[in-house]
Amino acid sequence: MRRTERLFQIIQVLRSHRQPVTGDALARELEVSLRTVYRDMAELIAQRVPIRGEAGIGYVIDSDFDMPPMMLTPDELEAAVLGATWVAARGDGTLARGARDLIAKLSAAVPEPLRPVVLDANLKAVSFVRIEADRFDVALVRQAIRTRRKLDIDYCDAAGKTTRRRIWPAAIAYTETLRLIAAWCELRQDFRHFRADRIHNCALLDEAVPLNARKLHQDWRRSDVHCSWQQGAIGPGDDREPGKAR
Question: Which residues of 201-233 are buried (b: 16+ CB within 10 A; e: fewer)?
Fold first, then answer.
């Protein structure tokens, strides 16, 4: 067990006991020497973790102590950094900047022993395929979803035909190569999936979507186009009825 993991484990052990826990008991629990326990305790106390201990009695932690949000385990931190790295490479511009800012904030907020997990991350998100470039700021779609507002878009289908659509965005899927927008289409009177790289213009409207976000999302997941897409019957971004050319 790495030292950072041990420090978190010590906190968890102390929080799970109402009575003082002796150094010997901690050493057995963690399978380390008593000297290592003493050294780890000194580190935790130096980091202002409210631990008190007396020789022959044991260690206790204040009952109202709760780990702050950035007290993550190394595995949790590596997962967060790997996910943020993937988003930084494949998200829309605004989301990618947010992912990079998140990594910077994590490196500044976590305790000193955990900083190498962020700064020297050995898990990488890589891609060997070309990512399709968006023709507009996909952040507008995320804003529309959050604020329950409609969008006006000019959409070019696979055949090269462009149509004006008014849509109610329900979700965005970030795939390996493109961004896919799931939305109710007023023109088709049904749910559709729109590839972001085929949207030429996008305007955020003041007009509100008449459904709350959860209901809209649930309706999309129950729709035929969602089911067909999951089954592979309709490719991403196809604008047609199931089984019919459109």
Answer: ebebeeeebeeeeeebeeebeebebbebbeeee
Q: Is the backbone of residue 237 left (phi > 0), alpha (psi -120 to 50) or beta? A: left
Q: Cβ(194)–Cβ(227) under 8 Å?
A: no
Q: Any residues with CB less than 8 A from the CB of 166 and at least 6 apart, and which?
A: 150, 151, 152, 153, 185, 186, 187, 205
Per residue in 98-137, pLDDT (tens digit) is 998 888 888 877 777 777 878 777 777 777 777 777 888 8
Residue with tokens 């289908």: 157
For the chain, domains (ranges, CATH) are 3-61 (1.10.10.10), 74-119 (no CATH), 139-230 (2.30.30)
Q: 229: pLDDT confidence band, cut at 50, 70 and 90?
A: low
* Helices 74-90 + 93-109 axis angle, to 10: 160
Give the Cα separation of 153 and 172 in Å (integer): 15
Give the other-Cβ count within 10 Å of 12's Cβ: 12
Residue carrying structure tokens 């507009």: 136
Distance CA 154, CA 142 (A): 18
Distance of CA 141 to the CA centre of its chain: 17
This prediction has a pTM of: 0.63
Q: In this predicted model, what pLDDT tens digit does every residue of 27-55 receive, in sequence order?
A: 998 889 999 998 998 888 888 888 888 76
